Amino acid sequence: MDIEKFQYDNKIVRDFAIASVVFAVVGMLVGVVIALQLFIPEVNAGLQYITYGRIRPLHTNAVIFAFVGNAIFMGMYYSLQRVCKARMFSDLLSRIHFWGWQLIIVAAAISLPMGWTTSKEYAELEWPIDIAITLIWVVFAINVFGTIIKRREKHMYVAIWFYIATIVTVAVLHIVNSIGIPVSLTKSYSLYAGVQDALVQWWYGHNAVAFFLTTPYLGLMYYFLPKAANRPVYSYRLSIIHFWSLIFIYIWAGPHHLLYTALPDWAQSLGTVFSIMLIAPSWGGMINGLLTLRGAWDKVREEPVLKFMVVAVTAYGMATFEGPMLSLKNLNALAHYTDWIVSHVHVGALGWNGFLTFGILYWLIPRLYRTDLYSKKLAGWHFWLGTLGIVFYASSMYVAGLTQSLMWKEFTPMGMLQYPNFLETTLQIIPLHAIRAIGGIMYLTGALMMVYNLYKTAAAGTFVADEAAEAPALPKNTAESNETRHRWLERKPVQFAVLATVAILIGGIIEMIPTFLIKSNIPTIESVKPYTPLELQGRDIYIREGCNTCHSQMIRPFRSETERYGEYSKAGEFVYDHPFLWGSRRTGPDLHRIGGKYPHLWHYLHLENPRSMSPGSIMPPYPWLLTQDLDTSTTMAKIIAMQTLGVPYPKGFEHTANALLAKQADEITLDLQKNKVPAEPSKEVIALIAYLQRLGIDIKVAQP
Amino acid sequence: MISRILSSIDGISAYPIVSLAIFIPFFVIVTIWIIRLDKQYIQHMSELPLGHSTDEKKEER
Hints:
Helices cover 66% and strands 3% of the residues of chain A. By secondary structure, chain A is mainly alpha-helical.
């Protein structure tokens, strides 16, 4: 047998590791800032670019796509080369992937504070960046598949399966959810509206968790955990079941983000059933991970790498048990829109993704630099500080979520809301938000200790960019029968990718087709009309400021909600909402029936300084809305885009739209001026008020 | 309201049944496949990441 000599590319692994560590610190820092803003709104220093609504997406994007994303690539590029016994397919593609991804992150870091956002959670980036992501993802895919095809190991280790599923599914999710009609370089409208948009978004949102935060990390777990423990995975058979059942079931569970909303019941039930079924593969995976350490638990006591990994796998188990529980309608009724969900995702993000990444980094960096970890003791400190941080974070958010939810639902014996003022429930949980911020700071401090530790490790060692390795070549062209067999093997990753795609598509298609069929069947509520040009512009300001990060527009059919907000939301009310703005967390009250509830004056003063209307409010002031001119040059393009999407504006409306806009702005301004505020019709605030006053009133018109 | 709209879609009841019909055979097949997997293959696969020949650091120690 021929022994071939080759070299592993460690440089690309090192580069991604550095990027991951840098963006871990950045992402967590932004997280701490927004955590502080939730009880000290002044932290934004009066700057529109760093208000909560704009940088909360920055935090989520930085953590998911920059920190975790780079960590995935780091771990994949390391492990893939080794289980394939081959260097990456192309060094050039590796570099393009690396720099392209970092450029995308920079573009996100600029565009989100600027308010260029689609408003769809974890898919906020506007269309030019979306296209860049697609291209870089293709580069990445070619590089990975190329490596798998030229591998020297006959079989594909299970980690590779998880990587393949990740690559194909993320591509499908990203493209389907991001399709929209561009209005300008920085603005686009979602192809879907209302209920459909919500369904597509949460099919995406849920599976971004599944296929960006879970499957690639499971691949990493199946490689690095056995590696760190120096023993094979507990059951390889179980890992196969884990893989197929996980990717097959996960894709169906998205609708559990929309329980009790205007989403059709059957879709909600489908989401719940599949979420419960998910416990099985998830726990199968967790048990497989933990049992890999059987007989090695003594090592866990001394080895920080294993400590981090054990907590990571445990956090995975906890989060994947909690998730299905939260998908039960009765529990979801309590937890949705509250901090409970925030707690849930952070058990996953801080525990599973964060700790597994830290474990891998502590294992990997000394190996890349041919030395020992600078300080095991410091890593131990990091472990305990991080763990305590998670405990502080998760527990305070549980209590906050439960407290607020119960307060929302509390009635007096007379049948009135016990806490009719939403703000009361917010103020009640402020101490818990402070504890959460402390937890976050502890976690960040631990991460900073890691940066120091890894830096010292790297400084003490010598980096080997190209690691020499050797492996026998796979038998080629030896005999006719062998050749067919080999060719079949070569095609295997491709066949495999096709199989995985089919598995995920079945769920997605069955979930979505009926909802798309509704479009032609839904009796549009006759009184629901498209937004006026001014309202449309106002809606885009609402999106730009990220109002939907704190305010929902979806009243669930509970008495506690209809008493507080008004008539529950109907599917037919959202048919012109490109994109939907249902929101997922009520830091402030729901706004779906805000229209007509207060006079224009109230909104004007409230936006200028929320505390003037609601003393103690944690909403930041938006004084710039009062001074910035509304950009009406976009009105025509926006109306045309909406017409393309099927919104029934009359023919030629785009030409008269701005005149209509000015007329409505004048009316609102006149009303404000009567009330002695120096309002001007050209300012952004007028458009936003017009939009807010329109919200949810269409069906009121219909009612006698 | 919604359920009425949905029931007006032709063959909507087929969806949950189709889901189940795809699902159960899929898992039966996967399970049978896994039970029948070759022991040597399993052994080889589970030891794959440990591949000692490439872990030079360990040999150095």
